[in-house]
Write a structure and sequence with these properties.
InterPro entries: FAD-bd_PCMH, FAD-bd_PCMH-like_sf, FAD-bd_PCMH_sub1, FAD-bd_PCMH_sub2, MurB, MurB_C, MurB_C_sf, Oxid_FAD_bind_N. This is UDP-N-acetylenolpyruvoylglucosamine reductase. Its main location: cytoplasm. Residues 17-196 form the FAD-binding PCMH-type domain. Its cofactor is FAD. This protein has helices at 30-37, 94-103, 156-159, 204-213, 220-234, 255-264, 282-288, 321-339, and strands at 2-8, 20-27, 47-50, 56-58, 62-69, 74-79, 83-89, 128-129, 132-133, 138-145, 151-155, 184-194, 243-246, 252-253, 270-272, 278-280, 295-296, 299-301, 308-311, 348-350. The protein is of the alpha+beta class. The protein has four domains: 2-69, Uridine Diphospho-n-acetylenolpyruvylglucosamine Reductase, domain 2; 74-194, Uridine Diphospho-n-acetylenolpyruvylglucosamine Reductase, domain 3; 204-234, no CATH class; 243-350, Uridine Diphospho-n-acetylenolpyruvylglucosamine Reductase, domain 1 (Alpha-Beta Complex), CATH 3.90.78.10. The strands form six sheets. It has a five-stranded antiparallel beta sheet. It has a four-stranded mixed beta sheet with strand order 1-2-5-3. Bound molecules: flavin-adenine dinucleotide.
Length: 351
């Protein structure tokens, strides 16, 4: 375990916001976590669990103890005629883990390639991209209760996965179960990768690749390559232009609400869902309100994709979390005024 005081966080969040942690602890094993819990005055409510910092906005210096999860390890736990059960430590980089599974000949995670961040954070918001969500391949995870020190295992049915949602995003018992926000430090995650593999190509961008290349039955590597190419063309690289990926969730509305919005603008991009609801493209709504390419202070809206807010100040004069949240609120207000839709931010604002 490594402890730093007044630790700079600028390189530990993909927005590149300059802030400091009063105390930053790098945890590399379950024992590190347990040792922390034995410290006099330990209070889990004054901690923040940090992975790769790719889904957070730092509102200022962090007075809570930041636990930077760096638990390593990847291994095959079981193999049978149906598939592979694979485990990774929470601190592993997600994309490296995806590539490693493919190198071993275990396909299934390729549509989730190039998502920044760590394996441990992936279940928190049930990461998803190009027709696959973490929950589709998830088996179970281990976590430590930061209040009691107890280690526990959660299976799929305990995690209350939803669209960019899980039990780890809720802090009270309720519709999404136990409410483990900030309290459960995920240490290891396991994935079930079935042998019977079919490429998941339902997304329009992937369909376009099939049409362009004429490859009807791509290999897992081919899908990974396509996904990486599509992502590189669409999303800014945080190493070049700070950002936290999609800033707002795509809102879900009823069919009646959707009809009302179509009445206001027939071009609205919408996707009917199996349960009868309709998902709206948040990026389109923001774009329609004229935000694409706009800048407020040192925070801006990415010119190629209005769903992504970016740090226009760069590493020398970075935007503050306050500027990002001000811009986010302005966008929320104009989308609400024009379409009656409340956009919900995806990243966690850390105060
Ligand atoms: C360019 C870009 C593209 C992106 N594309 C996508 C995408 O396609 N799909 C998608 O779903 N997301 C996407 N994201 C968002 C982000 O990459 C994911 O949410 C990712 O899982 C966050 O991982 P992280 O390790 O950086 O988590 P952090 O940002 O460090 O933390 C996020 C949350 O998880 C909690 N957390 C982190 N680690 C643990 C742990 N071990 N135990 C318990 N809680 C923990 C934190 O407390 C925080 O609440 C993108 C982000 C960027 C910058």
């Amino acid at each position: 375990m490594q402890v730093e005081y007044q630790a700079p966080l600028q390189r530990l969040n993909t927005f590149g916001i300059a802030a400091r942690a009063r105390c930053l602890v790098r945890v590399r094993s379950e024992d590190d976590v347990r040792a922390l819990l034995r410290q006099p005055g330990w209070d889990w409510q004054h901690t923040f669990i940090l992975g790769g910092g790719s889904n957070i906005v730092l509102a200022g210096d962090v007075q809570r103890t930041v636990l930077k999860v760096e638990i390593p390890g990847r291994r095959l736990l079981r193999e049978d005629e149906r598939g592979w059960l694979v485990e990774a430590g929470a601190g592993e980089r997600w994309h490296d883990f995806v590539v490693w599974t493919l190198q071993q000949g275990w396909p299934g995670l390729e549509n989730l390639a190039l998502i920044p961040g760590t394996v441990g954070a992936a279940p928190v918001q049930n990461i998803g991209a190009y027709g696959v969500e973490l929950q589709d391949r998830f088996h179970s995870l281990d976590a430590i209760d930061l209040e009691t020190g107890e280690t526990f295992t959660l299976h799929h049915e305990h995690c209350a996965f939803g669209y960019r949602d899980s039990v780890f995003k809720h802090d009270r018992p309720g519709a999404r179960g136990m409410g483990l926000r900030g309290r459960a430090l995920i240490t290891r995650v396991r994935f079930w990768l079935p042998r019977r593999w079919r490429p998941e190509l339902s997304y329009q961008d992937l369909q376009r690749k099939v049409a362009e290349t004429g490859i009807q039955q791509p290999s897992p590597w081919q899908v990974l390559e396509w996904v990486c190419a599509i992502r590189r063309a669409k999303l800014p690289d945080p190493a070049v232009l700070g950002n936290a990926g999609s800033f707002f969730k795509n809102p879900t509305v009823t069919a009646e609400q959707c009809a009302d919005i179509i009445g206001r603008d027939p071009r609205v991009v919408h996707y009917p869902m199996p349960d009868g609801s309709v998902k709206l493209a948040a990026g389109w709504l923001i774009d329609a309100c004229g935000w694409r390419g706009k800048t407020v202070g040192r925070a801006g809206v990415y010119e190629k994709q209005a769903l992504v807010l970016v740090n226009r100040g760069g590493p020398q004069d970075p935007c503050s979390g306050g500027e990002v949240m001000t811009l986010a609120r302005l966008i929320q207000t104009s989308v609400y005024e024009r379409f009656g839709i409340r956009l919900e931010p995806e990243p966690v604002c850390v105060g």
